[in-house]
Amino acid sequence: FIYYIKFVPIDKVTKYVSPSTMTGLRITEKNVLYVVVLMSLTTGNFATRELFNEGFWYFNGFETLKSDNFTEFFLATVSSDSNPYNSGPSQISVNSSTKFLAIHTSQFSLLLDLWPPQSVIHPSAKVVVSDKNNEHEENIRFEPECFLSGKPQFGRGMVSLSYCNGLHGIIVTNGSDYQIIAPRSTCAENIYLIARRASSNLMQQVNKMEEARTTHEKLTIELALFYDQSVYNYLEEKTNSKSLKEKLQYLVAAWNTVQYEFNKENQLGYSIKLIIKYINIFRENPSWYKTNSFALALRSVCVWAEERKLNYDHIHIVTNSKNSNLLGLGGSGGICGGGRCAISKSIKWGDYDTLSHEIAHGIDIPHDGHPNCANYTGRSGVMGDRNTGWSVCAAKYFERWLKRGKGKCMQEENVSVSVTKGKTHSIVDTFGSGLLPATYTTPDDYCRIRYGKGFSYIDLYPKYKCGIISCAYLEKGNQYGRIRIDTGGTNGLSCGPQMVSYVFHSIPV
Predict the structure, then answer these.
(1) Is 370 annotated as a binding residue?
(2) Structural domains present in the chain
(3) What GO annotations for molecular function exist for this entry (predicted)?
(4) CA 16 to CA 432: how far, in whole Å?
(5) Nearest C-alpha neighbor of 129 from the set 301, 320, 284, 280
(6) pLDDT of residue 307
(7) Residue 136: exposure state from Cβ atoms within 10 A (0-12, 13-18, ≥19)
(8) How much is the pTM?
(9) Which of 284, 358, 412, 475 is catalytic?
(10) How far apart are CA 308 and CA 226, in angstroms?
(11) With helix as H, strand as E and coil as C, how does 352-403 read?
């Protein structure tokens, strides 16, 4: 009997128990083993040796959910608009054209409207790889290959789903956060795990963005990005981003997160949409690119772009150079004008505060500690010591800059991009924009992005080490058991009830 408790995997249970019995079953930490044993005794049809050989069961990320304060677990079936009446064991069909999804448990149902997520990068953005003085344009299209965004049909909320490697994702509505977790490949095809917890910071973000979107003027910043050789080398040596496609996915994630700051219309007073239309990656630095200092690097790219008539609203260089102690440098109020260039040292996946900070300087926002801000009270933000949000002073300076007739380029499209690509183009998957990285990817997703396929999150560090991610390789092979620890902090990771990680600190939401 004890042997059964230890080794009976629930994926085997689903082979002998009908979906109607499994669907909606509520599981808690205290009774999960009891449920398995009870089913074992009632069905009584197990190949014990087979169970032992294949190991114990996990829904991917089950342990992670418990550490992220999910306290209730339900088994569910899923139907989509392409399979509207599917409540049985057959496989659910979800793809980029799916517009509706229903999740059914015995206690509740979630009805979701879906659409492909918007990204900060234009689907047909121009991508150039530079090898010293030789340039090669890549035939790439940016699409949300594996992702869907959406809203619950009833009430406010947010949906972010991935359908590659099994359907999984986040649903926020009616005071609760839900995660849907796909079973491993050996499980019944249409049995999913639904985890629920009291809503954390996500619902507050959704409410603020929805309240603001209908009231503020819409502005756009068209971006050209340059990544120098030091960034290319970092991605090659320190991350799992070996191919160009993987490198682009890694880099674009940071800019999707920059959009998180500029979505805060209720603080800044305006809606600012970022659109990346040009990317130049230096596999080997061109001879014209000066690396002696941030100032020289900035000037060399600006001059080169001017000679090429790259009329983007803002040009941003990203580096991992060790030749400067600065984190960033850019002109004040230079967007749309001669000082439209900036440079940042920002290489961590999803790292955005330095990028946001330098763009803010470009729209004439000073540091919150500037003497002219002394007359304004209230919270600090991106331009101060808080690293997120916008102060009253920041909003006033930006509004004043616009009223002086600046920022005209943000009210119109200045660089058109052809939407056509060759038939053999590569697809680069893009994440949804406007949320902290750990709120639209799970810790398991993060481990795979950071360290590669086969890595999953493990709860190695205690919860007070907020933001630190521990990953282990859990697939068969010579790497099995290898542990990697990211001590850089992962913004948005849940650290307890009503607490999230932000720059190594646990902050209330």
Answers:
(1) no
(2) 2-119+146-201 (no CATH), 121-141+206-429 (3.40.390.10), 450-508 (no CATH)
(3) metal ion binding; metalloendopeptidase activity
(4) 39
(5) 280
(6) 93
(7) exposed
(8) 0.69
(9) 358
(10) 14
(11) CHHHHHHHHHHCCCCCCCCHHHCCCCCCCCCCCCCCCCCCHHHHHHHHHHHH
Q: Would the annotation count 357 as a binding residue?
A: yes
pLDDT at position 174: 81
Whether the CB-CB separation of 250 and 235 falls below 8 Å is answered with yes
| Most distant CA atoms of the chain, gap in Å | 79
Assess whether 246 carries a catalytic annotation: no
Task: Look at residue 181 in the predicted model and tell me its pLDDT.
Answer: 84
With a CB cutoff of 8 Å and minimum separation 6, the contacts of 268 are: 262, 390, 394, 395, 398
Residue 227 structure tokens = 């990544």
At residue 400, the pLDDT reads 93
Q: In residues, how long is the chain?
A: 509
Known binding residue 314? Answer is: no
Q: Answer yes or no: are the C-beta atoms of 171 and 110 closer than 8 Å.
A: yes
Neighbouring residues of 144: CB distance < 8 A, sequence distance ≥ 6: 96, 116, 117, 119, 429, 430, 431, 432
User: In whole angstroms, what is the distance from residue 61 CA to residue 82 CA?
Assistant: 27
DSSP state of 290: -
C-alpha separations of 467 from 126, 309, 394, 437, 502 in Å: 34, 42, 28, 11, 7
Angle made by CA atoms 417, 419, 422, in degrees to the nearest 5: 120
Instruction: Give residue 462's pLDDT.
Output: 61
Going by C-alpha positions, the residue among 450, 445, 441, 505 that lies closest to residue 483 is 450
Angle between helices 353-362 and 244-262 (to 10 degrees): 60
User: In this structure, what DSSP letter does residue 90 have?
Assistant: S
pLDDT averaged over the chain? Answer: 75
Q: Look at residue 5 in the predicted model and tell me its pLDDT.
A: 34
Contact 220, 275 (CB under 8 A): yes
pLDDT under 50: residue ranges of the chain: 1-58, 84-90, 186, 210, 212-214, 423, 464, 504-509
Contact (CB, 8 A) for 344 and 317? yes
